[in-house]
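Final report, closing paragraph on structural work. Over the funding period we assembled a curated collection of sequence-structure pairs, and we close with a single example.
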Amino acid sequence: MKKILKIEGMHCAHCQARVEKALNAIPGVTAKVDLKKAQATVKLGQDVSDSQLTQAVADAGYAVTGIEAGRGLFG
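Its predicted structure, as stored:
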């Protein structure tokens, strides 16, 4: 399953890296963060709840403002 997380509060490459690291630390998650679009594209290799993803981003110091199901992401 693939999801797109809209993220608020990222302003630089350091912010981008913090969010990406936090999401990729969740077992079964592969994430790529796009700073310009203020979003993370997440590929789930196992069942991970939206609340787990949101909490990881919050723990990194940022806010998830929306989650969408993604299609055709990561090729």
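The CA atoms of residues 28 and 47 lie 8 Å apart. The chain has one domain: 2-69. We thank the funder for supporting this effort.
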